[in-house]
Amino acid sequence: MRPALARLACALVVLTAACTVPMDPPDEGWRDAQIDAQPEADAGPPPDDAAVACDPEGSRIGETCTADDDCSDACFCNGAERCVEGVCAAGDDPCADGVVPDGAPSCVVAGCVESARACAAMPDHTQCDDGEPCNGAETCSASLGCVAGEEPSCDDDDSCTIDACEAGVGCVHDPRDLDADGHPDVRCGGDDCDDDPRTGASTYPGVGELCANRRDDDCDGALDFEDEDCVPSNDDCATAEPLPPNDVTVSGSTRGLDGDLDLSCAPAGGADAVYRIQLPAHTDLHVEARSGNTTISVALRPLDECITGPDLRCSTRVGPSFVGRNLPPGDYAIIVRTPLPAPFTLVVDVEPPSAPAQNETCSATTDRLESGVTVSGRFDEVGDDVQPACREDGGLVADAVYRLRLDAPSDVVISASTDGLTGVYLSLVEGCDALTDSISCVVDRAAIVRRRALPAGTYFVVVEPEDPTVITYELVAHVTPAAPAAPGDACGSAIDVPVDGRVVIPVASLLQDGGTSCGGASGAERDAVLRLTLTQRRDVTVTATTTTGHASYVALRTECDDTWSELACRAQPLTTEALAAGTYAIVVTTAATSGDLTIDVETSAPSESVPGDHCEDAVDVSAGARIDATFAGAADDLRAGTCASFGRPDAFYRLSLATERRVLVFAESLVPGLVSVSLHTGGCAGPELLCRTGTTAAFERVLPAGEHYLAVEGDQTTPGAYRLRVFVEAP
Description:
The structure is a single chain. The chain has 731 residues and is an all-beta fold. The strands form twelve sheets. A five-stranded mixed sheet has the order 9-11-16-13-14, with no helix packed on it. The chain has a five-stranded mixed sheet with strand order 26-28-33-30-31, with no helix packed on it. Strands 35-37-42-39-40 form a five-stranded mixed sheet, with no helix packed on it. The protein is built from two helices and 43 strands.
């Protein structure tokens, strides 16, 4: 290409996007020739550098003039202006004729290059444009005519846009909406929380929340029953929500539900939701409930015992869980309780049956505890089968049982600990059927039971957490041949104390053999045993002091080795009124490790019995009553039930109702400590209908006509004054 033509092409900045020098097609000498042939003089010579430059905006067309020079704007491409009859007139187009060679494509047109002050045949790309941007920009070739362009790339390298070429429009970049529900992806600034085309077409703000699909349908951040639009209906056993007999995760809530059911591992109150599941064959069932950092409860019952229980499994903690092994075919109820109305997630895993745990309860096949061997276990794999004799709240918490076999009289030291921050109940029992089987029961962070010269035979060791949220435990027993006990150190070496007498025992000669129910039973304390024989009914006061000033606890028993036989247990001194003639064991525990333990026993003429102290003396409150009384001197008669605990003084009240009545009961401790009230039918020791415990214990219940009894129990260590208010009204 000739340099002149290249310069002309580069000057067409208004027609091309970049200045390039195209290669001449074959036999295109006609284009160079026709440019060189243009007579530059037709428009006048180019202006001198010092002259006025081309200024098309400075046109004088229509103004007066005397000569052609008066009208010139020094521009070539608009022709030479002339002075016609004294008025400036426009010039003629210098490139009107003879510019485009014969045979040139129709898109080649005459053009003018001002900088070169020359005419040229030029491509007019606008003549090739078909108006469709998505097939590329068409161009005009001097030799080929209109040439198709390349399709545009609409990729803007932005993952948050959907790039496409829209016919008649060109490239468009719409916000990402893969599921085409009209709501852009929230990760790209939109409001659609699920833009997955497989699942999100029906998930976007404004759509109704579906309550059982494990998705946040309306994108408000609340999943299923976390959303207040979802209101549960499985409020009780009759409306239990069915679950499939396979692995399932469901959302639930106790919002709007009542607390209809009493769980063995959960306090009264709160709200509960009920589910039911049918197992077609023997099955392992793993159940877990989650509700953030809230402590909640989950329990398993046979469906036909849904209302009353008992619980086959019950767990309370943050994220409670349990395992039911080898459950027989049948219908079961799963109950979830929260202390306050709240959403939760319930996870149920159904697995092939496995052998039940062999540390569930007392039997000939219970796992054996070998001397010196530490065993570990989990409370969520066992149920509640044994009530620790020293647990005042009833002990309705999962427990593990081990068998201890002694072939000869032995000294036994058993210790237990858990992964929790609270204590663990450790019991040594002869059987699991009744609390009277208990030989020793202690509770401590690291609980220790010591028994000296335990006779040969089979025993059971029970470990139960104080806190039902605790999961794991460790247990170890050390068994050695029995060694003789020092005087006063054990039941077999108990010291006879005379009536109104004193006994002094060196503390260093004592070891811990079980302690008392009201204190001093952790394993760190030491205990002494005395034997007292009364020939007639007397009031008895026992006082224990140490030379080191350490506190002591005193218990009075009818059977020395039987903690359950305790008639009373107090932080010393201990006073028992109107104690009948007979032989009793006095057990004193102390935290002292040196010096002497001095025990004084004083007796006096018997006092009058406390009103309501025994069932046969129950005070009638059928018409309602307000009673201020005291537990001082009262005996411990009630031993069965959730409220009952040995060593706690009690009083009895009778409700003889001729018709159905609504009864409100308030029992209030007037001294520091707790008070319990329980309701019984058929006698003072009849079935326990309910139990309430606190500084104020209260309940309301509609009772049928008949005989009902209230048992009020005082604090074990600090019994004192209390107030009982009973209101009896029409239902």
